[in-house]
Write a structure and sequence with these properties.
By secondary structure, this protein is an alpha+beta fold. About 25% of the residues lie in helices and about 40% in strands. A hairpin with a 5-residue loop joins strand 2 and strand 3. The longest helix has 25 residues. Keywords: Signal.
């Protein structure tokens, strides 16, 4: 049974389109409290939403044990908003962290006057501390790069097929 080259090309483009739509961006973050012992850094995984904002779907970092779902801690929405450097709103993003013997739930947010971290430990001790928050995007492949790679693979497959059938 022979498959049409057009059919195999369409299948490859479909796979590339699915990979591009499932693409998530990563952002490196660092936060250091100007009072108190809080400091943290790591990587946020976020997906672009239809409104142009990014929804944070994952977090990794020193002492970080997990992302808290939107709306489950201190009004968090886990959104980043695009600007010259992506920024947070007043709801911020929340995660759990272990700092020494203490376990904290942390919400980092921007109230318009600056960045803050709201901390709540297992003993229900709460504190809001000013933080210096910085966010940098990490390089991620773009869909056009994946399309170029796919067409290169398709070209190699065509050359290999041509050599295979001309030798027999």
């Amino acid at each position: 049974m022979r498959y049409s080259p057009l059919l195999s090309s369409l299948a490859l483009l479909t796979v590339l389109a699915i990979a591009a739509s499932a693409h998530a961006d990563t952002f490196n973050f660092a936060a250091t409290g100007s009072s108190g012992p809080f400091s943290g850094s790591g990587t946020l995984t976020a997906s672009l939403q239809s409104g142009g904002e990014y929804l944070i779907s994952g977090i990794m970092g020193t002492g970080v044990t997990g992302l808290i779902a939107p709306g489950n801690f201190h009004g968090n929405d886990n959104l980043l908003f695009p600007a010259a450097t992506p920024t947070l709103d007043s709801h911020g993003f929340s995660f759990t962290e272990i700092n020494g013997p203490d376990h904290y739930d942390v919400n980092i947010f921007n109230n318009g006057d600056g960045y803050f971290a709201f901390l709540d430990d297992e003993d229900n001790f709460t504190q809001t501390v000013p933080v210096t928050f910085s966010l940098a995007t990490a390089a991620t492949p773009e869909p056009s790069t994946l399309l170029l790679l796919g067409t290169g693979i398709l070209g190699l497959a065509g050359i290999t097929r041509r050599k295979f059938f001309s030798a027999s």
